[in-house]
Q: What sequence folds into this?
């Protein structure tokens, strides 16, 4: 047993929730951002501004035409797998081998590809690390074993994982359509909490394929956390804190939450209020890339995702036009309601002494 522990330590193989559930999951979201999400944004910009270079195919592969954004989107599997391997501190030969594995896992996982990539990339990466530099022909052995195991696992478990992820995601979306008030609260609160915790709400939404009304509720919860913390901590952190939390991440408040959990009440209660408003009143749907559902106001990616969904729905005929009511709903749910409601709740908490000046100061 001691020998195994020493081997795992030497190979930097750490079997823990921190390594896999936080670091790897967070890296996967970054990989998605740099491929699928950026590709979607590029396509939207090209379409809306009529930029030929962005709207016309620049490459045709096996009779499939690809735009600039299309090429970025097509690389989402490899981007996720490489990002995960990077987070796991894989040596170069293992890292580069994950390109093939990510493509295989994402393709075989279907609509639930991101979850398949997460599992397969972690397993193949750790096994690749175990054999790395153990032979004199490392340049052959490491990629051969890493890719062989990764592709085999993709064939073996990716389709099942993908179907399971989509079943869960579809169940959440179906329940939200059936009970928009209750599910609006539940989805908004849980995804919002995930956004502030050191895990990736974006990766979770992507893995579950969370779109539609459920995606709108998830967006509402994330915005409530980010904008909420940004405005209620403005006294302590000024404009720098407003920007770093409002369009960066509310995760910056985690150390303060650990010291005084009461500071988390205002943004979380706000998410419980804005979630059902999004689903029941504005019928806000996220029909862009699922990863956008868990991004909130981070770089305004969530809002761009909603807009790209509108554009796609209009193009397909599912939506006749983008209305003023659509825009009002997006602005109110993303910015106005989170700011106003969280400020009101925070004022009550400060009056009771549960939250004090300085409790949300960022280092």
A:
């Amino acid at each position: 047993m001691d020998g195994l522990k020493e081997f795992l330590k030497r190979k930097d193989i750490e079997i823990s929730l921190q390594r896999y559930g936080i670091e790897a999951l967070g890296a996967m979201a970054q990989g998605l951002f740099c491929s699928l999400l950026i590709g979607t944004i590029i396509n939207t910009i090209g379409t809306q501004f009529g930029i030929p270079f962005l709207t016309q195919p620049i490459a045709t592969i096996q009779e499939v035409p690809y735009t600039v954004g299309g090429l970025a989107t097509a690389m989402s599997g490899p981007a996720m797998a490489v990002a995960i391997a990077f987070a796991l501190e894989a040596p170069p030969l293992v890292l580069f081998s994950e390109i093939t594995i990510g493509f295989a896992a994402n393709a075989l996982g279907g609509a639930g590809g991101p979850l398949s990539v997460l599992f397969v990339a972690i397993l193949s990466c750790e096994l690749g690390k175990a054999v790395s530099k153990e032979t004199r022909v490392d340049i052959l052995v490491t990629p051969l074993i890493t890719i062989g195991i990764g592709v085999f696992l993709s064939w073996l478990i990716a389709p099942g994982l993908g179907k399971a992820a989509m079943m869960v995601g579809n169940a959440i979306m179906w329940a939200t359509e059936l009970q928009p008030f209750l599910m609006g609260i539940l989805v908004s609160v849980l995804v919002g909490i995930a956004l502030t915790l050191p895990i990736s709400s974006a990766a979770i939404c992507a893995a579950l394929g969370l779109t539609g009304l459920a995606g709108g509720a998830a967006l509402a919860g994330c915005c409530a956390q980010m904008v909420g913390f940004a405005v209620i901590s403005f006294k302590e952190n000024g404009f720098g804190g407003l920007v770093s939390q409002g369009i960066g991440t509310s995760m910056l408040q985690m150390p303060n939450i650990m010291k005084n959990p009461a500071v988390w009440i205002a943004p979380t209660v706000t998410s419980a209020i804005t979630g059902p408003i999004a689903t029941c009143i504005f019928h806000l749907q996220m029909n862009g890339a699922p990863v956008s559902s868990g991004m909130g106001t981070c770089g305004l990616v969530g809002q761009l995702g909603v807009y790209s969904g509108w554009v796609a729905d209009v193009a397909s005929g599912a939506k006749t036009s983008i209305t003023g009511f659509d825009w009002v709903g997006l602005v109110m749910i993303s910015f106005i309601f989170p700011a106003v409601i969280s400020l009101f709740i925070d004022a009550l908490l400060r009056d009771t002494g549960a939250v004090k000046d300085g409790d949300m100061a960022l280092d």
